[in-house]
Design a protein that fits this description.
The complex is a heterodimer. Chain A is mostly helical. Chain A has 16 helices and no strands. By secondary structure, chain B is of the alpha/beta class. A 5-stranded parallel beta sheet of chain B has the order 2-5-8-1-9. In chain B, helix 8 crosses helix 11 and helix 9 packs across helix 11. The two termini of chain B are 33 Å apart.
Amino acid sequence: MAANHRGDLERLTRTVRRARFWGACADAFFVAGLLAALIALVLRLQGIAVRPLFFIVLSLAALAALVWGLWAWRAPPPRNLAAWLDRAGGHRGLLLASLAASDGGAAWADHLKHRTPMPRLRTRRLLARALPPLVLLALIAFLPDRAPAPRGRLVASALLDLAGELDAAAVAGELDPATEEKLRERLAELGERDGRPAWTEIDALAQRLAVERETSAPRRAAAHEALSSAAAGESPLRDALRQAADAGLLAKVSPAQLRQLGVDPATGAMLTPRPAAAQAQARLAQAVADAVRAGDTGQGAGERGSGREGGKKADGRQGLRPGERRGGIPGKGGVTRGRGDARLGFLNDTKGDPGRFKATRLPDHAPAPGVSRRVDLRTEAPETKPNPDRGSGGAGAAATGKATGRRVIRPRHRDVVKRYHAR
Amino acid sequence: MNELLAPTEVERGRELLARVRDGLGRALLGQDELLDLTVVALAARGHVLLEGLPGLGKTELVKTLARLLDISFARLQFTPDLLPSDITGGPVLEERDGQRDFVFRKGPVFANLVLADEINRASPKTQSALLEAMQEQRVTVLGETHELPTPFLVLATQNPIELEGTYPLPEAQLDRFLFKAEVPPIGAETMEQILNTRRHGAPPALEAVLDHAELGEVFELVGRVFLPQPVASYIARLVEATHPKRATTCPEPARAFIRWGASPRAAIALAEAGRAAALADGRPNVDFSDVDRLAAAALGHRLVLDHAARLEGVAARDVVALVLNATDAVGDVLPRDLK
C-alpha cells in the first residue's frame, strides 16, 4: 500500500478521536451546564447566595465533560476507519485489500494512486452546544441579588401558631401580665430576627409558654384563696397581698385603684400603716379581692390593653373560651370546634374521703360480690341449653342451622342481611 | 495475511468472463443485467432460477450459455408426470455375458450444465430429486452414490403466471439457488433490433469461447479473490437484518413484511457471488458495491414474506432494498460532528 494512504489512515484516526473527544465534552457540558444553570437559577430565586456554589457546580460540569470526553476518546476499530476511507476515496475495496495483504498490495499501488484523496473533515457544532449553558449561567450571574427571606414558611407558620397560643392563654387569663409581656417580647424578637430562628429557640419558647400556663393557674387559685381567707379573717392580709402580687393578680387591677386602697401595685405591700382592726384588714382584703375579680372579668382590660383578644373579650362577644383555639387549628382563626377543643383542668378536684375508693384485693376464684352467684357445684362438664337469641355462635348451640334461622336480627341490620341474601 | 491476485491474473479472469458475457450479449439483446448475473453465477458455480413470462428468452439464454462453454449440457422439460428417476437415472436390467444384472444408467442430471425448464410444473417429489444434486453434487440411487461432473450448474426456469397445476418450489429448494433472476420484458427498440437481425428468431451461430480448462481457471481465480473483513461484516449484518424476530437492526417497515429471514447459506452465497462479480469487474477484492448490487438477486428468494407483503403488493426485491437502505455498510465510524 502506498505510504500516503497509511498516513491518511493515521490522520483519520486522529481526527476521529479528536472529534469524538470534543463532541463528547460538548455533549456533557451541554447537559451538565444546563443542569448547573437550573440549580443556580433555583438558588437565586430562593435568595440563597450562589457564588461559591455556582463555581462548584460549574467545575463539576466541566469535570463531567472531561470524564465523558475521555471515555469517548476511543476510536472505532481501524478496519472500520479503513473501510470508511476506502469508500470515501472511491477505492472500491482495494485499500482494504491492500491493508490486509501480506505484501501491502504493492502490485496494486498504482491503482490506488489514481483515486480520490482523503476528503477534508471538519468538526462542527461544538460551540453551538457549549454556548447555551454558558450564556444561561452568565445571565443568572447578572441577576440582581434578592434579599434573603426572613424565615422559611414553616418557621413563620410556627411563630404564628405560637402567637395564637399566647393570645389564647392571655385571654384565658392563664398568664400573669409580666410573664405575658416577656413571652411577647421574645416572640417579637424571634420574628424580627434577620436570620432564620432556630427550631430549638421556637420549641424553647413554646415549652416556656406551656410551663407558664401550667404553673400560673395553681398560683392564681392559691392567691384567690388567700385573699378569700384574708377577707374572712382567717389569714394575714400581708401574705395574701404578696401571693396576689406574685401570681400577677394585682396587675389586673388598675394601679390607681390599688393606690387608693393603700396597696403598692408592684409589690403588693401596704402603703399605709397596717390597720389595727382585723375587720379593717378583712374589708381591705375583700376590696382587693373584688377589684381583682373585676379585673378578671375584663373591667380593667381597656386600661391595660393586653392584646387583640383582650380587647375582643371586653366587648363580651368574640372572646375565646379558656383553652379554645381559633378555627380548631392554633393561630389559624375561623370556626372553633367548641368545648371539645378546650384544655382539661384538674384544679377543682373534690376533697372527698380517699379511703372510700381504696382498692381491695379479693380472694382467688371468689365471685364478684353482688354480680355473680353460685348455682351449683359439680365435677363433670355443665349441660347447657342453646339460647336461640344468641345464634349458632353461642356456647352450646347445635350447628344445625336452625339456630341461625332463629337468630334475632336487629332492625337496623335487617336491610343489610336482606341485601346479602338477595345477591 | 493474504496475498492478492496479481493484476495480470485479475485481467485474465476478467477477460475470460468477458468472453462469455459478450457471447451471451450477442444472443440475447436488451437483458444486460440478467446476463451479468448469469456470468457471475457461472463464475461462482451457483445455480440460477430464471423467472419470467414466456418468450423472453429464458431457455435461449441457457442454451446459448451451453454453446459458449465447451461442457456437457442436458435439458429437462419438467412436466407433472416426470419421475425422479427420469432426472437422476435408475437401474436397468442388462444382460452381459449371459448374465442379467441391474446396471445404473445415468440420467440427464449427469451433465455440467442442466436446464430444468419450467421446474415448477413437476411434482414436489420430482423437484426434490434435484435437492441432493444441487447441494452436494451427487446422486444416490438404490443406496449407491454417484458423483456428478464438475462443474455442475442448474439453470431452472419458471413461469410466474399460469400457476394452475404447478407446484411452487419449497423454501429448501429455493435456498439452493444462488440467484433468482427475474427476466424483464424488453423494450420496443430492442424488439426492433431482434426483428432486424434474426430470422425466425434464430440466434446467431456461436462457438464455444471457454473450454473446460479455462472454466476451471476462472473458478480457481474466483476462489482467490479477497473478501475484506469489513465487507464480510457487512454481508453478515445484512443477512442478520432480514430476521425481524431476532435482529434489532431489521428496519421497521421490513418487519411487517418478513416472516422468516435468510439463512447462513445466503451469506455464503452472497460472498461467493461478490467474489465472482469482483473478478468480472477486474478487481482482486470484493467491494461493498458488489454486495449492494447482488443482494436483491441473492436474498430475495430466500425471504419468506408475510401475508402483509402480498396484500400490499410488496415484492421480496423491495424488502431487500429496505434492508439495504437501513444497514450501514461501514458502520458507525465517524462522529456526527465530523463532516
